[in-house]
Amino acid sequence: GAVVSQHPSWVICKSGTSVKIECRSLDFQATTMFWYRQFPKQSLMLMATSNEGSKATYEQGVEKDKFLINHASLTLSTLTVTSAHPEDSSFYICSAVRDRESWTNEKLFFGSGTQLSVL
Amino acid sequence: SQQGEEDPQALSIQEGENATMNCSYKTSINNLQWYRQNSGRGLVHLILIRSNEREKHSGRLRVTLDTSKKSSSLLITASRAADTASYFCATCSVDRDDKIIFGKGTRLHILP
Lengths: 119, 112
What we know:
The structure holds two protein chains of two kinds. By secondary structure, chain A is mainly beta. Chain A contains one helix and eleven strands. Chain B is globular.
């Protein structure tokens, strides 16, 4: 099956620094990637939908200046948490899909997630 | 906001028993999927059921879908300790631009 690689898997940083998380589709071209956030023992909350070559679409309540998303190629999307603060500590997980046809009819492929801890 | 609601939120059963988890949703869907997540890990896809299907099997898993009640159930038969995990339903919502929205999840604990 398709493989999605997410890196890093765990990052600890000081408050005020920026953290970049990468999501790569290893064996297929992903026109769309979804970014989710998950707090402990809670569900996945969709943050934004990233489309290759265009601006990401953010969900209501998600600050686009805080969570910068770049989808510069068909195999890579990045999420940058800018000026991270302790309340940004969370598990971030991406999902890559070939196209709208595939995600509405097939399963999603997820990265392994990134645990961000901001001190 | 998440549209899926799983119940129960937490479930503990003895190994060998069957575990049933339910999911309700609010909008029209293309499909409904069930995922499993071990603590601190990514999600593993279990099964996808389309809106025109009523029941689907995969190994020890059985999923039902009732679009009139906007609900689905996941049954794990003959549970094993390794089934301990969180289980989430996810809907591909026609009414929400085909976004994949996750429910709150059920934390399943299999007792040895």
